[in-house]
Amino acid sequence: MNMKTNSLLEKVIIQKMPPVHSDNRRAIYDPQKITNDLEGDWYAHNLMEIYGQNIFNADCLLGKHHHDYEEVFFIPSGILDFLLIDPENPKQISKIKLDSGKRLFIPKGVDHLTFNKGNNPAILMGYGNVPFDPKRLIPSNGEVLKILLSEAKQYF
Fold it and tell me: What was the pLDDT predicted at 3?
């Protein structure tokens, strides 16, 4: 993981989440426990299967936005790449590879995008500290969007 930080990006947290059970056949995660140790109320926002891409296509990049609330992503299966930018300091970017069993906490206001560079689908579970409302997705724009797309293109 290559991570440069400033004050807002320093609040990003990556954690390995323990399964409630695992054996040589599976790992079982309790969706309710993904956010148990975080302060406040948390709400399930989405469950996505994200397909692998082997050529750059900006339309296949998910996110390209920020929120006015905190967000948590959990990857029960697969590997996803995340790019995070503090719009107040867009020259600093966090590049994060999140694999199975890991959780990513994103503070409010951090622009982000994700993509699957692998050959296999990845599963992403999203949570927020407010009920989901698509009107609260604030699109990345200007310099922030340009940097996100430029950085993502380097992966392909």
Answer: 47
